[in-house]
Structure formats: C-alpha cells, structure tokens
Design a protein that fits this description.
The protein is of the alpha/beta class. The protein has a single domain (5-182, 199-203), classed as 2-enoyl-CoA Hydratase, Chain A, domain 1. It has helices at 29-42, 66-73, 82-92, 108-111, 142-150, 152-161, 167-172, 185-197, 201-211, 214-232, 235-245, and strands spanning 5-10, 13-18, 50-55, 97-101, 104-106, 118-121, 126-128, 165-166, 178-179. A six-stranded mixed beta sheet has the order 1-2-3-4-6-9, sandwiched between helices. A three-stranded mixed beta sheet has the order 5-7-8. The radius of gyration is 18 Å and the shape is globular. The structure holds coenzyme A. Coenzyme A binds next to helix 2 and strand 5.
Length: 258
C-alpha cells in the first residue's frame, strides 16, 4: 500500500484512511489506483463485510489533486488514469460503504458520498462540488445522482456556485445520515460499521444490487468523463488551474464560451 492511504482490516471491516494531510488529502492518480484496488478486492476477498472511509488531518479531502489536473491539461498526465477504475469500483460495489466526514469534502470528496450507504458527519463537515469554479463538469455520475437526491435547483446551486453545504443541510437534504461530535466521529462510524457487518452479508449485497443500477451509473460516469476530458483541455480550465497554483482568484472574463 502507498503512504497516502492507510488500511486496517479487522472483524470484517476494511478501514481506509486518506493520509495526505499536508495536502488536505487531495487525491492523486496513485491514490485513486490504491482506492480502486481496495474497493474491487473488498467485493472478492470473502472477508470484508463493510468498507469504512475516513480522512486524516483537518478535512476529509480537498478532492482531485489540482496540480495533476493542470498536468493533464498540459498533456503531461499519467498514462493510465486510475480515477475511472475507482469510480467504476464504487458503482459496482456490493459491499456496504460507510463514510466518516469531517471538515471539507470537496469535489469527488462529496460525489463519492453519493455511492456510500451510510454517511456520518462531524458538525464542521462541509460538502462542496466546485466544478464550475474549475471550469469542469460533475463526475462520479453525480450529474444524475445529485439532482435525484436533492432536487435540481439545489444540485445546480452546488455544482454552479460551489459553495459549501453545512452538516445540518446535508442531513436535511438526504446527503448524510446524521451528525455526531467531532471527537466521537471515528468511534461512531466504527460502531455503525460493526452493526452493518453483523447483518447477513449476502442479504446486504443483494439489496445493494437491487437499489443501484451499476450499468446505468457506469454509462453516466463514462459520458461525464468524456465531457470532463474536453473541459480539462479548455482555456477556462487552464486559467482556473493557474489561478490555484498562483493562489489568486481566476479571471474568466476575457475567455469566450468555447
Ligand atoms: N490539489 C492539490 N493540492 C491541494 C489541493 C488540491 N485539491 N487542496 C489543497 N492543496 C494543497 C495546497 O496547495 C497547499 O499546499 P502548500 O502548503 O504546498 O501551499 C496545502 O494543500 C494546504 O492547502 P491550503 O489551501 O493552504 O489550505 P486551506 O485550509 O486554506 O484551504 C481548501 C483548504 C480545501 C479549501 C483549499 O485548499 C482548496 O480550495 N483546495 C482546492 C479544492 C479543489 O478545487 N479541488 C478540486 C475539486 S474538483
């Protein structure tokens, strides 16, 4: 396993901890590869009954590594983009997924929650999907799943404005199950994972298959990815990535629509 992803397997629970706190757990291609392997294997190892995802440091994750987005935009991206395998693994997973979220969950940090089965939040949790701020489009089938979950106008607001949704709203909108004290987050998430792990695994797996249409989700992910790749190469996105690197606000005013 890589240093940025910590894994613990005990009592049927696979706990995955995002461990790149100095970069706010921003996800690199290598991290996506490790996450994809873990989620794919969890469905096949005959041991894992629940997967629990959490983050080290002061936020859950800052989403995709923006430096890697910039490298892809400049034609210097990695040969194989593991994010696609990670997203497909989420869509296909029939092992229950629990998430424990504190601080910000940005971009894929929020959209991956749409594939989780139980989401616990610390009071400081903030869900945000600032795709338009980076001149990108939604991913992880969130262009379908988010409006379905919260309604079109809230989903549009989240995608287009990219402003954070606080923990109370996230629960009220059906994006998470409940809020617990920050110092209790990991313990409570573990207790919930244990509770789920004690249920008949075959029943839960069949239930997930019935509740989610993996093929349709993958088709949506793939069409989003095609548009996402186009957007990564746009002048707007280049300006957004440069602005992030230079720690300034992007200026899209002189860039025409295409
Ligand atoms: N990709 C790469 N590096 C990131 C990152 C990301 N998504 N998010 C944070 N980092 C890095 C910063 O560049 C900084 O690195 P440095 O110390 O070498 O300068 C470090 O993590 C700390 O981030 P900083 O911005 O100083 O922390 P903050 O607490 O002020 O803000 C965030 C935290 C998450 C609000 C802010 O970092 C942010 O907006 N990140 C980008 C989120 C994003 O757009 N993700 C893509 C979504 S599609």
């Amino acid at each position: 396993m890589i240093a940025e992803i910590r894994v613990e397997q005990a009592n049927g629970i696979l706990t995955i901890t995002l461990a790149r706190a100095d970069k706010k757990n921003a996800l690199t291609n290598e991290m996506y590869g490790a996450l994809a392997d873990l989620i794919e294997n969890a469905g096949q190892d005959g041991t894992t009954r629940v997967v629990l995802v959490q983050g080290d440091g002061d936020i859950f994750t800052a989403g995709n590594d923006v430096g890697e987005f910039a490298a892809i935009a400049a034609g210097k991206g990695p040969g194989e983009r593991h994010v696609h395998r990670f997203l497909h693994a989420l869509a296909k997973s029939t092992v229950p997924l629990v998430a424990a979220v504190h601080g910000k969950a940005v971009g894929i940090g929020t959209t991956m929650l749409l594939h989780c089965d139980y989401v616990l939040l610390a009071p400081d949790a903030q869900l945000m999907t600032p795709f338009a701020n980076l001149a990108l489009v939604p991913e992880a089938a969130s262009s379908y799943l988010l409006p379905l979950r919260v309604g079109h106008v809230r989903a549009f607001e989240m995608f287009a404005l990219g402003e954070p949704i606080d923990a109370n709203s996230a629960v009220a909108w059906g994006l998470a199950n409940k809020i617990c004290a920050k110092d209790e987050l990991r313990a409570q998430a573990k207790r919930m994972a244990e509770k789920i792990a004690a249920k008949p695994a075959g029943s839960l797996s069949a239930m997930k298959l019935l509740m989610r249409n993996a093929e349709a989700l993958i088709a949506k992910m793939d069409s989003e990815s095609a548009k996402f790749e186009e957007r990564l190469a746009s002048a707007e996105a280049r300006e957004a990535f440069s602005a992030f690197a230079e720690k300034r606000k992007p200026d899209f005013s002189s860039i025409s629509q295409h």
